[in-house]
Amino acid sequence: MKILLIGNGAREHVIAETLKKNKDTKLFSYLKSKNPGIISLSEEFETGNYADLEKIKSFALRIKPDFAFIGPEEPLNNGVADLLSEIGITSVGPTKSLARLETSKSFTRNLLRKYKIEGNPKFEIFDKNNLDDAKKFIEGLGQCVIKPDGLTGGKGVKVQGDHFQTKKEAFDYCSEVLQSHSAVVVEEKLEGEEFSLQCLTDGKTVIATPPVQDHKRAFAGDKGPNTGGMGSYSCENHLLPFLTKKDVEDGLKITQKAAEALHKETGEFYKGVMYAGLIVTKNGIKLLEYNARLGDPEAMNILPLMETDFAEVCNAIINQELHKVRIKFHNNATVCKYLVPEGYPGNPLGNEKIEIKKIPQSAGLYYASVEQKEDGIYTTSSRAIACLGISDNLEKAEKIAEEATKSISGKLFHRKDIGTNELIEKRVRHMKNIGNKNQNI
Ligand SMILES: Nc1ncnc2c1ncn2[C@@H]1O[C@H](COP(=O)(O)OP(=O)(O)O)[C@@H](O)[C@H]1O
Ligand SMILES: [Mg+2]
Questions:
Q1: What pLDDT is stored for residue 441 in this prediction?
Q2: Whole-model pTM?
């Protein structure tokens, strides 16, 4: 089985590793930079950027893979799945039109509204022609969140009380967004605990993987600026300490309905990952956003737990046979901690050498944005290496991940608090204060 893998982060490293568990898999990868982990698992690789459609096409034509796996959002937004489809290659990863689920927040909010799918907060969408109405709408909300309509690399969404304070600032930010984006989404601010429910779909059947909680803030105690994600954890019972089974089922139901709505709306079947960014509130589960791909770091929490052959799962996605597959996950807890360059995210120290000593055997190590050079591995401007601990409980998994970080040295830092009891109890207390209708607390 020949698989073309596009992407070069730690997410793609774990995707590569999981696909390679099938002895018949031969991997061919297209990457933006030389990720040593992915390269070592590949028969062949090509480097280039994700907008160079000609280069991707000629690599694919030469390799003739059975299917492609598109990891990051950027190539999905550039229409790489469409391009490959034109030359007869199916992708795990949606077409450009279906990837609007992630790339256009107005598309997704409107989809849920049109098909009467629960999960939306109060929201409205504004453009240059009706910006005046935004003022009234903002006045009528308690606190609000402003979202540019389009990919912003996780840097465009602003939350009242967090990134700005007053309603005037909210309106001013709407105007600012419309300088560079065609529309802006204004929504009510929801209170609760966030989690990621990464679902696999062939456009008809939707299957949830265990829920994961990510940590966006750069420093311990959820301090500092937002990042691509500093680490994440999942629990052995495939719930989270503040989530009920019903919460997870509700998140899956929203996603099943959204998959059906996508087909009605576009006539196309969505094949790939529908990652629901959910929040559990006092009124139950709400949808913050969808991503059209696995999470990074969250992919590292779920793929190593997959007992079912991932390459077979991908085949079932391509052939729309997911209803025939029972995807099983080990009942283990996972903790993932990212080592990032000093100064990240604002002023990262790139081009610094990283030394890796022997990693404890029980730990996983995944390369993210590092550059393999002749004399070793160097940092770039983004997250460098992820350490993963897996064990039968969270406490042990956290210790393994923490231990693994000690075998890597360089001008790097990480969040020591991810997966610790102290932080998790804080999340549980937060949720108890808010209440959850599915828990009657
Ligand atoms: N309606 C909302 N209420 C409260 N917080 C929100 C809301 N929408 C988004 N956020 C916060 O902003 C973050 C980023 O928003 P999200 O919709 O996930 O966009 P992106 O990941 O593209 O930046 C979320 O993780 C969440 O913390
Ligand atoms: Mg998000």
A1: 45
A2: 0.97
Ligand 1 centre from 394 Cα, in Å?
26
CA of 372 to the centre of ligand 2 (A): 29
Q: What is the pLDDT of residue 287?
A: 98
- Expressed in angstroms and rounded, the spacing between residue 294 Cα and the centre of ligand 1 is 17
- For the chain, domains (ranges, CATH) are 2-95 (3.40.50.20), 122-188 (3.30.1490.20), 193-426 (3.30.470.20)
Query: Could you identify the atom of ligand 1 that is nearest to the CA of residue 121?
Result: 1
Q: Can you give the pLDDT at residue 440? A: 54
How would you write the chain as a 3-class SS string?
Answer: CEEEEECCCHHHHHHHHHHCCCCCCEEEEEECCCCHHHHHHCCEEEECCCCCHHHHHHHHHHHCCCEEEECCHHHHHCCHHHHHHHCCCCEECCCCCCCHHHHCHHHHHHHHHHCCCCCCCCEEEECCCCHHHHHHHHHHCCCEEEEECCCCCCCCCEEECCCECCHHHHHHHHHHHHHHCCCEEEEECCCCEEEEEEEEECCCCEEECCCEEECCEEECCCEEEECCCCEEEECCCCCCCCCCHHHHHHHHHHHHHHHHHHHHHHCCCCCEEEEEEEEEECCEEEEEEEECCCCCCHHHHHHHHECCCHHHHHHHHHCCCHHHCCCCECCCEEEEEEEEECCCCCCCCCCCEEEECCCCCCEEEEECCEEEECCEEEECCCCCEEEEEEECCHHHHHHHHHHHHCCEECCEECCCCCCCHHHHHHHHHHHHHHCCCCCCC
The binding-site residues of ligand 1, defined as CB within 6 angstroms of any ligand atom, are 121, 145, 147, 154, 157, 159, 187, 189-190, 194, 277, 288-289
Express each pLDDT in 116-132 by its tens digit: 999 999 999 999 999 99
